[in-house]
Amino acid sequence: MSMQQHIDEAEKVLLHTYNRYPVVFDHGDGVYLYDEDGKKYLDFVAGISVFALGYNNKEYNDALKNQIDKIIHTSNYYYNVPAIEAAKKLVKVSEMDRVFFTNSGAEAIEGALKAARKYAFNKDGRTDHEIIAMEHSFHGRTMGALSVTGNPKYREAFEPGIGNIKFAKMNDLNSVLSLVNEKTCAIIFETVQGEGGIYPATKEFIEGVKKVCEEKDILLILDEVQCGMGRTGYMFAWQKYGVKPDIMTVAKALGCGVPIGAFLLNEKVSKNSLVAGDHGTTYGGNPLACAAANKVLEIFAQSNIIKNVNVVGDYLYEKLEGLKSKSDKIIAHRGLGLIQGLEFSVPVAPIINEALKKGLVLINAGTNILRFVPPLIVSKENVDEMIAILEDCIDKA
Ligand SMILES: *Cc1c(COP(=O)(O)O)cnc(C)c1O
């Protein structure tokens, strides 16, 4: 069957919740993807910040195959070694104390919100606690995660959400402080806003929020689903600022393609929030998903992947600055490590479509922003290759 026939069939059976690009990827190798016709693409998306290790990593593939032949699923009513091993590694690199494994980023957010509400409930028995979230944030599509997502267009048709959510402005400390009251139980934001347009937290902002959280025993929830797992040049982006959250969420690159996320709690929250019977999941933390996370974390610990992010991230920054100085269509450049964004004065969809034709996979973050989130093994040569194609596409857009 041809690629176009597959696309036609997909449009008959899949719910149309995505405007998909007209390509069916068949396999991948390193930072390259291949479509069903054998055409090769340089990938600067990594399945949206997911496939950190690059495609077809033998060690990772073998770990999954071995686990499949042993056991894929049991239940969270029993212990399994891949989950124990993955949790030990995750606790170590995150400096947090306890892990709950989930199937996705959104499910990790749901758990984080429940832990925060339970913590506050345990203190005063009230059920009207408030959570402060940020405008332009993105935390996922389930009802709780959607309720703290800052884009009103994503929320409108699905109101009412979980309730008692207030929105402040990212990087505007006063806008947060003006919403804090005795009912506030948590403040949630992405250490680097991804979907909303690649806005890293400023040092003053994250430090100021942490200070008010400590003063008033409000929980700081940092969403590291997109910016975590080495992407900023730190294992977790908050480590750049030295501002540790009470609750942290991870997913995307944690399993490098096998669906797994997690929320992690510090000692204070894990001792005073969710207990047996309060929360659960059937698939979350199963042996197959945890074998993936365990191997990913092992490769992170043993390779120089984060060093590569710093070296190539700096190089990408320089090259994108160069593009910005040459094109008056580019109005801003933000980000750190291998999560960067270029903001245009025009919609970027024509650039993405043109790049795809030329064998480069790019993605947007909002209408006018190109987001660069390649596999973390990307090289300087790959950056040069990407810039050359992109430059051509900007001219023609
Ligand atoms: C992608 C994302 C989520 C949601 O993760 P899913 O696995 O799609 O549910 C949550 N938070 C951030 C910051 C994300 O980028």
Written account of the structure:
It is a single chain. With 397 residues, this protein is α/β, with parallel strands linked by helices. It has 2 domains: 3-57 and 304-396, Aspartate Aminotransferase, domain 1 (Alpha-Beta Complex); 71-302, Type I PLP-dependent aspartate aminotransferase-like (Major domain) (Aspartate Aminotransferase, domain 2), CATH 3.40.640.10. 41% of the residues lie in helices and 18% in strands. It is built from 15 helices and 17 strands. It has helices at 3-13, 46-49, 58-70, 81-94, 105-124, 143-147, 152-155, 173-177, 203-216, 238-241, 267-271, 287-302, 305-326, 349-357, 380-396, and strands at 25-29, 32-35, 40-43, 98-102, 130-134, 165-168, 184-190, 192-193, 199-200, 219-223, 247-250, 261-265, 330-336, 339-344, 360-361, 363-364, 369-372. A 7-stranded mixed β-sheet has the order 4-12-11-10-7-5-6, sandwiched between helices. Strands 1-2-3-15 form a 4-stranded mixed β-sheet. α10 (238-241) links the parallel β10 and β11. The longest helix is centred in the last third of the chain and has 22 residues, at 305-326. The two termini are 32 Å apart. Pyridoxal-5'-phosphate binds at residues 104-106, 109, 138-140, 190, 194-195, 223, 225-226, 251-252, 261.
Write down the domain tally. Answer: 2
Biggest sheet, open or closed, and with what strands and sense?
7 strands, mixed
In CATH terms, the superfamily of the largest domain is Type I PLP-dependent aspartate aminotransferase-like (Major domain)
Individual helix count: 15
> N-to-C terminal Cα separation, in Å?
32 Å
Shape: globular
- Work out the number of β strands: 17
Strand order in the sheet with the most strands: 4-12-11-10-7-5-6
The percentage of residues in β strands lies in 15-25%
Helix content: 40-55%
- What is the CATH level 1 assignment of the largest domain? Alpha Beta
From the alpha carbons, calculate the radius of gyration and give it in angstroms.
21 Å
Weakly predicted, low-confidence segments: none
Helix/strand structural class: alpha/beta
Ligand roster: pyridoxal-5'-phosphate
Mean pLDDT over the full residue set: 97
CATH architecture of the largest domain: 3-Layer(aba) Sandwich
CATH topology-level name of the largest domain? Aspartate Aminotransferase, domain 2
